[in-house]
Amino acid sequence: MKMKSIKIFSVLLILGLMMVACETLTEPENDNQYTKDRILKDPAFAEGLLVNVYKTLPNAYPLDEVATDDAVSNNKLNAYLRMATGEWTASYSPVSKWNTAYNAIFTLNYFLSVVDQVDWYYLDDAIAANFAKRFKGEALALRGYYYMVLLINHGGVATDNNLLGVPLVTEVLEESDNWKLPRSTYQASVDQINSDFDQAISFLPDVWENSDDMAYSRVFGAQNKNRINAKCVKALKARLALHVASPAFNNGNYDNTKCVTAATLAGQLLKDNGKDIAGMPGDYVRFYNSDGDVDNADILWRNDHFNSNSLESDNAPPSLYGNGRCNPTQNLVDAFPMQNGYPITDILNSGYDPDQPYAGRDPRLNYYILCNGGTYGSTTINTDVNSPQDGLNNTTSSTRTGYYLLKLLRTDVNLDPASTTTKRHFYAPIRWTEIYLNYAEAANEAWGPDADPNSYGFTPLTIIGALRSIAGISPDDYLAGITSKGQLRELIRNERRIALCFEGFRFWDLRRWDADLTEKAEGVSISGGNYSYIDVENRVYPDHAVYGPIPYNEVIKYDGLLQNKGW
To answer: Which of 30, 215, 388, 545 is the least crowded, having the fewest Cβ atoms under 10 Å away?
Structure first.
């Protein structure tokens, strides 16, 4: 009996060991997934959440002018070309930022939920608290930035005829939470963005710089250059305020009260930073000057530089081994005035000669657009139809308009396959030139061309005059004849079109102005010194395209997410 009990026990023991072994074999190994504990105890790992959001920021100019009256592409598969010629839908929207923005926002929400718990610097509590403060400021600034991107891209009049913004999520969403959130009102979205921006400003310095205080420098020092700071956030607030004050969001007219807010934000930022007329950057006109723009005072915020030749490879003329992709239009060329400031349409005063259409023009024309007989570096480029490579429509890489892009390109890049080189490039999200133009537009609508009620020391008219003077327009006799708000409005819009061309503004400027989106893209055919102006591409936009669509995949998830009207 005793022997039988021992045998039964032995069998049970063996079965038990086998079950433990099987359990061990079926239990998954650690798959390198880190827990919240790792985030709280490893500051570098925690900061990585923030760094990953920085990586999602734009790092190149979009060249979405191809979807406007300013440019076309010789690549018939170009996404912006397809949009401009009738393919823009809620299912096909190359300008949509929905997924990118919300992915960043969800990451930032989680980061903000743990930032005060992370052991940022175990040797000194005061330094640790400053790190938490700084990182919180950066996270709030970036969340505000991405909500602003969403609002600009997707805010609009919805199917219920109300002006709506986007769904607002400011807390961490768990699996059990309700993810089906409706769009907030437009104003609630604006308020949330400004709340994030205001908090960020309270946490961040205006400038990342070192000081004699080593503890301060460790947290807020110059090693953080190119990360967002309070000055950048103030510029974004001014940009947002102008957008919100614009006609498309105010029943077709500027809202005067909102224009006062936009003008005050931009004007105070300029004044506080010594950017009056005398302090206006003298090299705003050129990109990649002799020092590679290392010290370009016009740039407020830019990304880290990188060596490349892809922009040149895409857009240089084919005779220089480029693909000539982005072709400025005759429409944009015609927007450049003569050097005396008069538009070329003013035949009596401008001195424009249709037989020499590029002579005596605003010098920016030669800096931004490669016209027939212009130079790319030291090479003269001819777009005459008889030019075998660079002539109009002569090859798949030739221009479709008679023009090639010059702005943003480094002409000292060599694309010859036998000796290809790269050069330093960067992307600048904010330039002071934009802030000057934001101020001029808002202040003109708020107070008129010559008013300076806040004693900034400049007016909309003097700002525009100074920008044109630096560009080389002199004497600016045309400006002296500008006396009304309406006249200056048109000049400011034209100056904005020129000064910010190919930097990603025109596509959304036309929409916030509630302007005509269907102006046909035109070009020039040159033969034997004769200039014939040609239609190149129709612009096919419905009236509701003033607002971008909510992605179709999001709308079908539930009925409560209203689409913008018409989409």
So the answer is: 30
